[in-house]
Amino acid sequence: MPEDAATPTVTPTTSTTATDRPADLVEVVSGVDVIICCGSGGVGKTTTAAALGREAARLGRSVVVVTIDPARRLADALGLVDGLSSEPQRVPNAPGELWAMMLDADEMFRSVIAEHAGDAEQADRILANRFARSLSGSLSGTQEYMATEALYRLHDDDRFDLVVVDTPPSRQALDFLEAPGVLTRFLDHRVFRLLMMPTRRGLKVINTAAQPVLRAIGRVVGSDVLADAVAFFQAFSGMEAGFRDRASAVDELLRASSTAFVLVASPRPDTVTEAVWFAEQLERHRLAVAATIINRAQPVFGPGTLADACAGRDAAGDDVALAAAWEQLIEARRTAEAEAAEIEPLVAVASGAVSVIVPLMAADVHDAAGLDAVGAALMGSAGMSTDPVGR
Amino acid sequence: MDPLSGLIAPHVVIVAGKGGVGKTTVTAVVASAAASRGRRVLVVELDGKPTLGQWLHGVDGVEVMTISASEALDEYLRDQGFARIARRLSSTGVIDVVGTAAPGIDDLVVLGRIKALERAGDHDLIVVDGPAAGHALTMLTAASGLGDSVDSGPVRAQADEVRALLGDPTRCQVVLVTIAETTPVNEIVETAFEIEDRVGVQLGPVVVNLVEPAAIAAGRGPERGDDEPVAAEVVRAVDAALHDGRIDADQAEALTAVVEFAATRAEMQRTELARLRDRLALPMVVLPALAGSDHIAALARWLVEDADGRGATDA
Prior knowledge:
The complex is a heterodimer. Chain A is α/β, with parallel strands linked by helices.
């Protein structure tokens, strides 16, 4: 981060070093190498990641946005008519150098296996295995793991100086932080140890069948399925060290001060609760939240208060139409007050972080103009909150 | 017919939809409404979050139950006579290994539990707060996927029974939830076709949640734009009040902005509701966006009392 001598004074509330916390999102997107957008599903993470990417590109950075959401939302919004691919694509008509890609967890898994395999033959043997093929789709946390792997590779790629990651909508928000170790933890399972026990050549399956745990698994899922699993673990032999090394490198990248975590929520109790919990987990991991973003908030209309609006309605007398307008303003301000109370816990827990509120737009955000409106709200450009209709 | 009857026609109702559209809200509302009609309702939630338990706490006739995949697998193994093994499996975290060896087994055992609850017959209605849309498809296809790859044994038997439940429209249906915005409408249409093609489960009415009251003209179907003149009339009244000096310029600007914002959103939602009706040959149930802490009870009343077809329209 440039000019880090001019440190803004913030109250350090935790053990996290709060010395160079940014003042706004302009500073965040200008100063870090990696932005990770976290939050529960449906809060607008993908849109936020795309809008942050566009704004960073506008500020002159070479940005790549990685999304996991298989929906066409991001591709459409960015104007990529053919959709996103698993290779970064340059976004045409972007306000700067912007790239985008969609994670294909399955393809990334194959690529990771190929990278760590001793030779092509070992990679082929693993990838031909039915157990391996289902691993990337069914082991919980694999998608997050592949997302961190993509992040690591893109961070190393000279074409980009900022990587923005849209994390998968996790059932467990922490999955992403623990993702780099997901395969190594899997390999550490006791059953795996049993499967890897040195035995006489060719007799492993018979030998494992003598283990009660494995015999039970075999009876439940079928012995051919178990044989696939055994073959997978055998084929994997010798690759663990490479996976472990990479896991710690990725972990280091996630913890680097040049990596910013951005929490996205909507002004609803459940998503705020999840964001608060995630903020606490980050603090526990000695990681700081760089920013909290509340999407789809009630827009603010005019400078007055709820009481002013109530007084206005009372003064409208028998002008029914005017009273109806005041009623709508009362409803809007009442909602805004309720939302302010709902997001309070998140603002409190991430007290040193940038806090941004993006108002609900009159139209669905699904094109460049929509992303620019969100981007302007994120970056704090003037004029947003006073004209949410966008006219 | 009132909107509720179509939603709760079969014994098991699985509610599915993308994150943020209010799937859990719809689950709670359908359960409360059915209970108010005297049904004994069981709500099943799958992600271990306390929300449904809190929202439905103290509602007469509604029970809430959590089914987690690892517990269901554990119980399944016990039922199969592997009690000792099940204990060791859980303690070593091997459920991941089993889940990977037989992808979908976690989803299958969860559906198996739901099927057993249906068979037990202690409730008139089981409402399942299903997983988010993408995962819902994976979950619903788990039975056929596993059934195809496992030839015999307990897993195969379980898969066959779950397939029978899903394939019988008198026993089970899926209710999709969305909101009246462009991308969510596109996504729900895609999901509906995929579920029909790949699962063969009955699709119930589509619930459109969080619709601006202004987009639901009183006494009429939601697609009619009859309140459009009303917004224009209100704006004219604001102009007149500014002209007469009854309100100042700041007030006039705020009032005009709030009225136009609501009208723009209502118009967008009417367009999207019409598009959804065009593209999906399914009945539609519209739920209004309501503020306030008692929105579950209010929406449940809307479903039950709304017998004139205000919120529900047939395709």
